[in-house]
Amino acid sequence: TPVPAPALEALRRAHAAGTPVAALCAGAFALGQAGLLDGRRAVTHWYLSDRLQQLHPTATVQPDALFVEDDGIWTSAGTAAGLDLCLHLVRTAHGAETAATLARALVTAPFRTGTQAQFIERPTPRADRDADALAAVRAHALAHLDVPHTVASLAAHAGMSARSFARHFRATTGTTPLRWLTAQRVAAAQKLLEHTDHPLPEVARRAGFGSEVTMRQHFATQLSTSPRDYRAAFRRTFGGAQTGGISPTAR
What we know:
By secondary structure, the protein is mostly helical.
């Protein structure tokens, strides 16, 4: 369906002014009509991915991602992925605790990364048993984030080979073990920065990054900010009030 010309022009003006522009699910087609997907990465519902790519051949449509950002243009997959994108923007602008509170109100998962798959394989009895083992591994990893986990060490905890573990982990969660682990470490570091006075090297150690440099690199990649700036924006008082916030696109 053609989008009215005034709406397309409003989208172009907003992006030109530096305003983040987000489209949920099939909303990506409106951005395409506005020319905002040309030469950029984008995502939509997996059922519509081929159509979006056909209509906008200069875009790079990623059929497996939940949401992506390219030059201030955000797009997401289906309805649940739209919530994931919105929670990601809230987390970036207002902190991990605010996003978690909102997720609880929405009765949805508090933290899914944009790189997770849109859908996972249908479970079988064997898959259910594997899922139980993988759930135990995830709980173990979360309880020991400061340990330098590897795919091999996590696989050993699950009683699987590394190759089998990696395959079953992705089939169950929609992402790889190391990507999942990194996302959990970023979330843990966010909470430590919000609620403690630990020096940055100690935050990095407790979250399992090993060094402040590594933590800083992952914050830049996932949150587009630094741990120091994140703490300055979201450090909470004893009463629980936030001291500030940052733009979702702040670098």
